[in-house]
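The authors assume throughout that readers already know how a fold can be written as discrete tokens. The format is easy to grasp once an entry is in front of the reader. For illustration, here is how one protein appears when written out as sequence plus structure tokens:
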Amino acid sequence: MSDIRTGLTDEECQEIHEMNMLGMHAYWSIGLIANALAYAWRPFHPGKAGNRLEDHAPDYVRSALTSVQEQASSVTAAVQQSPIFG
């Protein structure tokens, strides 16, 4: 017998519920695996030594960070020498 509110039979409702639960379990499983991989790569709660990107990053990321830091310091120096901001 179909429900007046939805127009679905009990079997159809159970089938939709099963698919919904399957999707929820897949979503949670993917999230759990993603968090486990992220934790293995870089723990969420670092020890006393800290957890800086510079310590764990590949060489190309370190060189990019160094380049950005150098550019930022040169811009800061130029702004400080400017008559407007000096």
